[in-house]
């Protein structure tokens, strides 16, 4: 499965419509982004049930700013609409595989419970 290009208009629906979404934030001028690109594409081919998407931070500066992207490449993983992984830096293939394995293994009931508990904790 080829990667899908996302924009400020399409990202929300893509995250809602897919169980697991990996998003690579990149730019054409970024050397590490270019090195990570083939790794990300290979993961997309090997894991067709996972939406692999890319956001061009030059074309989508507003979206990158809204999501707090300060360094590229940055990889974000969403599961059931929830951001569960966010890390800057190009990952080698084995590390990307580990991220995907960990995202698949998450107990989303527990993740939602943790989010709910954080929402009601008083701030100090």
Automatic annotation (TrEMBL):
GO terms for molecular function: protein-disulfide reductase activity. GO terms for cellular component: cytosol. PROSITE patterns: THIOREDOXIN_1, THIOREDOXIN_2. SUPFAM superfamilies: Thioredoxin-like. Gene3D superfamilies: Glutaredoxin (3.40.30.10). Transmembrane segments: none annotated. The keyword Disulfide bond applies. Residues 1-105 form the Thioredoxin domain. Pfam families: Thioredoxin. Keywords: Disulfide bond. This is Thioredoxin.
